[in-house]
Amino acid sequence: MRRSLISLSLAAIMALGIVALAVRRKSPGPQHYVPDADTAAAIAEAVLSPAYGKAHVESERPFNATLNGGVWVVTGTVYCPDGLPPAGKAPTGRAQTETVEISKSDAHIVSMTYISATVCK
User: Fold this and answer.
1) What is the pLDDT, as a whole number, of residue 16?
2) How confident is the model at residue 103 (pLDDT cuts 50, 70, 90)?
3) Residue ranges of domains in the chain
4) Predicted TM-score (pTM) of this structure
5) In the β-sheet with 109-119, what is the strand arrangement from edge to edge?
6) Closest alpha carbon to 78 in 45, 120, 31
7) Which residues of 48-76 are buried (b: 16+ CB within 10 A; e: fewer)?
8) How far, in Å, CA of 51 to CA of 4, rounded?
C-alpha cells in the first residue's frame, strides 16, 4: 500500500512537471511583449488617443521611441507653424508634447505625461 502511494505521488509530480514545461514552451516570454520601437510607438498612440483626442495625437507623428533601462520612452514630434520640426531654427517659445513610458517586459504603461519642448515661429 505504501509503495503504491509513493508511486502514485511520483507519477503525479512528474505529470505536473511535464504540464509546466509544456505551458512554459507555449508562452512567448516577456522579452516579446514590446520588442521594438515601432510597437512601442503604436501602443503609445493607442493609449494617448482616448485621453487627448485622435486628431491631436496624429498631429504629433512621427513618434520617437528609445529604450532606456527596459522602458520604452515614446515622445511625439513638435512642429513649427510652418509645418517643419524645430531642428536648425532659432527657438522662440515652448510647446508641450505627450510622453508615454512603456515597460518592455510586460507592456504596462509606466507613465503618461506632458513634456516641454523648445519650438520656433
Assistant:
1) 62
2) very high
3) 30-119
4) 0.65
5) 64-68, 71-75, 93-103, 109-119
6) 120
7) beeebeeeebeebeebebeeeeebbbbbb
8) 62
